[in-house]
Amino acid sequence: VTTLSRLQDRPTWILSRASARAHRLLTEGFASAGFRGYDYRLLAALAEFGPASQADLGRRAGIDRSDVVASLNDLAARGLVERTPDAADRRRNVVSMTRAGARELTTLDSVLDGIQERLLAPLSERERMQLVRLLRRLGE
Amino acid sequence: VTTLSRLQDRPTWILSRASARAHRLLTEGFASAGFRGYDYRLLAALAEFGPASQADLGRRAGIDRSDVVASLNDLAARGLVERTPDAADRRRNVVSMTRAGARELTTLDSVLDGIQERLLAPLSERERMQLVRLLRRLGE
DNA sequence: CAAATTTCAGTTCCACTGAGATGG
DNA sequence: CCCATCTCAGTGAAACTGAAATTT
Predict the structure, then answer these.
(1) A42 burial type by CB count under 10 A (0-12 exposed, 13-18 middle, 19+ buried)
(2) Considering only CA atoms, which of A63, A138, A19, A136 is closest in space to residue B120?
(3) Is residue A62 less than 8 Å (CB to CB) from chain B?
(4) Å separating the CA of residue B66 from the C1' of nucleotide C8
(5) Nucleotides of D under 7 A from a protein CB
(6) What is the pLDDT of residues A39-82, one digit of tens each?
(7) pTM (2 decimals)?
(8) Which residues, at least 6 apart from A53, have a Cβ–Cβ distance to it below 8 Å?
(9) A126 touching B (Cβ < 8 Å)
């Protein structure tokens, strides 16, 4: 795949190539464990903040309310989270993580660690820190 | 938007944030000139390789055959490219860039330059080169 | 016949919008 | 009355697949 000379040296292009590679590694890594990206983020949000309404979960995980519903349907069907009606505010479901969910999250954490390692393999420890520092400075 | 502690320091996360920002700048920049991402890449491929069949164009620009059709419909309707049947191989259309197309490409080149500048604004010249070098070493 | 080209229709994933039903 | 929550349906961009029609 010859890349166009007009794009080859543009930082936006190089950045998006690198990010596409990371994204591919993530998708494959999570998929081989039977998950998609949102699932991990929802479990992570539950672990970090404890039981919460779906709306709060979505805000904390940075996931749209609609996508939260779809992903939780999946996680609940597999017994990794539980929805229980909130007695104090009956509009809400309180979502909590089950034991199995916590175990699964631990597994996914190490999947994620493995992916970092695979992505950064070509760089030394010092270069990795440099890269992260520079990317952070780009803002947002 | 508080970001999850589990993600905050992962290189894949930071990389994808930076790339999302670049992507947003690109989409907005091209859109405000009336184009989408594929359009620029097709014009760039035409400028670089000269008139070509749609299939070749797609291979050179790294765009799927289906998406080439859609984007060329658009570009042709605006008079930026022309499709003419290939006399030598009647399965093919030969696509060529018009004068107006070449002018438009020049405009888009400078839109793209402006975006690089906006993205990299927080970094010094030396840091920009460092960043590009490190990203390139991640492979692919 | 097999293979390539153009095109159309449809799919998947991601991020999001709109609206309805229930409740505060 | 207004606002929040949960849910479903649908939209639109990006990348891709399948298949039909034509031609080599």
Answers:
(1) buried
(2) A138
(3) yes
(4) 9
(5) 4-10, 13-18, 22-24
(6) 999 999 999 999 999 999 999 999 999 999 999 999 999 999 99
(7) 0.92
(8) A86, A89, A92, A93, A94, A95
(9) no
B96 strand-pairing partners = B82
Take residue B103 and report the two structure tokens written for it: 């002018």
Residue B35 is encoded by which pair of tokens? Answer: 């184009």
Helix extents (H) in chain A: 5-8, 11-32, 37-49, 54-61, 65-77, 99-120, 125-137
B54 touches strand C (CB under 7 A): yes
What φ, ψ does residue A91 adopt, rounded to 5°?
Answer: -75, -25
For A88, other C-beta atoms within 10 Å of its C-beta total: 6
Is the Cα dihedral A7, A11, A12, A15 positive or negative?
positive
Residue B50 CB neighbours (<10 A) = 10
